[in-house]
Fold these 4 entries.
Entry 1:
Amino acid sequence: MTTAKNKYAIGLHIWVNEDSGHFLGKGRIQLLENIKSTGSITKGAGLMKMSYRQAWQMVQDMNSRADQPLVEKILGGKGGGGAIVTDAGNKAIRLFYGLEEKLSKYATQLSEKIKL
């Protein structure tokens, strides 16, 4: 009888989809977190080496798929504009990480059972 010398691990890429496409994934969550920490879509996108246009399109897409906006723009004023992650956006971040944690634990349990 041979003993298994290799260990295998199940890797996951988690997407929360809405009827017509992707809603949340790791990159979108990172963008939300960056907007939250910088108060700016431009700065949040820059941290990811992403163009403002691409980030704005992602924000618009997430907002259109959610029941409530996840990000709101703050228009002009003395210090210029900015953006905030709404309560719904913060809830989406928590939901995503909660799902990721549960699914990762389950994947680890399954990985331990792989014997080839």
Entry 2:
Amino acid sequence: MTADPEDIISAGDRLLQQHPDSFSSRFSRNKKLVTKMTNVGSIRLRNRIAGYITRKKAGC
């Protein structure tokens, strides 16, 4: 099962709203935080959410 890009964006935006100071522009740190803050079972989905958050924090 795949997730739509809208699902990735909404999950990432929700996490950024709830924990704005927790995330950084480092992907490896964001991966760990997404794992702790959600119950995402898929590694690929976790990486996509963490990548979206990383891009938002880096200003890309």
Entry 3:
Amino acid sequence: MERTLFGKLLLLIAVAVFIGLQVSLWVGEGGVRDLRRHKDSISTLQKENEKLAERNRVLEAEVRDLKSGLEAVEEHSRLDLGMIRDNETFYLVTGNPDARRAPVPPPAAAEAP
């Protein structure tokens, strides 16, 4: 009878250890849940890095244009800073504010029977 009691106790301890290891594997630090969270975080950071890398490529191209020729500098000066060349005249054309509105059709005449 002692052997069966000892065997049952040993089996119970083995099951408890197995359950403890499984819990640690699935929900503990460095477990499956932690690994999945880190993979999601890495994916998000990679997407953000791709966006930033594209922005950097655009900025590098703009810097190259600004260093290589005067056309880009002139365009930047005109559009962003509102500058004009010597002996140029700047005209600001404004229209009639009422002309921008859509014409209102006249009210329909009521027909008498």
Entry 4:
Amino acid sequence: MFTVDFSIDLHCHPTYKPMGKTFKHTKYVQSDDPNDETSLWNYNPPSITDKILNELFSVTKFSQANLTAAYYGRVWVLSITLGSIEKWFFKNKLGTGFLANIVDNFAAGIGLAGIKGIEITNDYFWDLQNEIDFVIGNDETVIELDGNFCQYKIVNTFAELQEVIQQNIDSIEDANRNGGKTVKPITIAIILSIEGLHTLNCGLETACDPNTVRENAIALKNLPFKPWFVTFSHHFYNELCGQARSLSGTIAKLCDQSKGLGQSFTDLGREVLEILLNEEDGKRIFIDIKHLSPIARVEYMKRRQELDPENKIIPIIISHGACTGLPDMGSTRSEYPELGNNFCSDEINFYDHEIIEMVKTNGIFGLQLDERRVANKEAIRKTKNSFFKNKIMHYRSELLWNQIQYIAELLDNNGFPAWQHVAIGSDYDGIVDPLNSFWTIEQYENLKSHLERHAFNYLQNEINRLQLAQNRNITADQIVNNVFQMNAWDFLKRWY
């Protein structure tokens, strides 16, 4: 336990919007001014109109994971997920003309110039390097917020992370003793990860050059700020492996995800997998299994087990996900129907056996804060509404609590610790529909307090079905602290 409360988010996208806006200014260069739209600090909380648009059309026009929101929400550790936006989001059934791009920008919010730049790109790896430079450019640049000093720092090791957090704690404690103003800057610790290995320059209009892809995979391991983990696939086929269907609603009708669905790894993908997991150079990159097709997840887990039969060197990472409520691929009935029948059973979410395997490897499951992922349409439709903000927060936070409770009971029933492997991986600013009233990472403190109520109610009454003493003997605030801080912290300590 820390003397100062803070949160950790294992998966978010604060770069998408500000970097997209650089295309109409100086490409790929982040502004030093936190009020500029090209700054990671640019604060753009949702207006009343934004909230209405989100509730009616699931459109997220506001900034969810900017660093100012992180500062206000005391989210001190962010795994910033890099990766070129795939051009097939914008080269879709609407075409690529001006009017089509206006419609696309309404949903994505990265600017018309940014969309055009993505449409014409022919080198995803070059784009990735520019995105890394965009973040590195303002590393440890001090800014002022409300009379206090702040900065972000990219950390490469757990020791560096530990130093940042301790300095923040010291600064807060000094401020509490001296009138409330911090003297030393509060630092947001940044850990880099990548979503989608199309970034190795594959999945474009023409077939990739396998030698270039292999060379880029090796180069990835030798970057000054090497990514901690990568998702192998993203939304569209990348010539390395099959992806899970991930889009829904209007965007699914506009974008064609069909190619690659239901496929496993290609031969080139298997070569890249071996390069990334190879530890001979001391630079292994872990694999995040989100977005892999279910059959590709099966193949990956088999290969991971071959490389790590004692589960000591390669954890299973789910950086941002949710439960299907089903035991395995092909099942149609939940073994825990009271909760499981309310979940989104799409293959982008995870099966019971995958969650159990994750725990066996001392892995981590970051819960995604997207209503469409944590609950099915019927459960969302039946969620109570209110004119009172506090009640809305109570009803909507229960959608997330149901996921936490489900995982706890699943693990307890299989003889595992119930509360030690779930964290937060919001996916904010990644085209998600947030839990209503928890619009950005600034609202994490509110989300924590409402989840604590659900946890308290669960522990106190007859719905608590936990059998193991180690899982029952816990307090509500410990559960919430585990989810928002300690589980991710312990995972970082073990593996980073």
